[in-house]
């Protein structure tokens, strides 16, 4: 079995682990009601997407 010839440096190790971090979701405001929503998705509070009503308000 292969054995490493040298110790992996902290910098190289952390570069490899760079993609395992937690990501903060990017939020945008709804143009209709002003609530925070995920981009390119229907607004959960008013049901609008791209100035059209997709889900009827309850």
TrEMBL record:
List the Pfam families hit by this protein, alphabetically: Ribosomal_L32p
**GO cellular component annotations, sorted alphabetically?**
large ribosomal subunit
Query: Which terms in the Gene Ontology molecular function aspect does this entry carry?
Result: structural constituent of ribosome
Where is the region Disordered? 1-23
Single GO biological process annotation from the record: translation
Compositional bias per record (Basic residues), positions renumbered to this chain: 1-22
Instruction: Read off the InterPro entries from this record.
Output: Ribosomal_bL32, Ribosomal_bL32_bact, Ribosomal_zn-bd
Q: What SUPFAM superfamilies does this protein's entry cite? A: Zn-binding ribosomal proteins (SSF57829)
In terms of domain of life, where is this protein from? Eukaryota
Q: Which UniProt keywords apply?
A: Ribonucleoprotein, Ribosomal protein
Q: Does the keyword Magnesium apply?
A: no
Has keyword Flavoprotein? no
NCBIfam families in the cross-refs: rpmF_bact
The Swiss-Prot or TrEMBL record describes its family as follows: Belongs to the bacterial ribosomal protein bL32 family.
Instruction: Give the matching HAMAP family.
Output: Ribosomal_bL32
Cite the PANTHER family for this sequence: 50S RIBOSOMAL PROTEIN L32 (PTHR35534), LARGE RIBOSOMAL SUBUNIT PROTEIN BL32 (PTHR35534:SF1)
Under which name does UniProt file this protein?
50S ribosomal protein L32
The taxonomic lineage of its organism, from the top, reads: Eukaryota, Metazoa, Porifera, Demospongiae, Heteroscleromorpha
């Amino acid at each position: 079995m292969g054995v490493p010839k040298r110790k992996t440096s902290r910098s190289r190790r952390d570069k490899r682990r760079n993609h395992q971090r937690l990501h903060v979701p990017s939020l945008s405001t709804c143009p209709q009601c002003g609530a925070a929503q995920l981009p390119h998705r229907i607004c959960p509070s008013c049901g609008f997407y791209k100035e059209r009503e997709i889900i009827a308000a309850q």
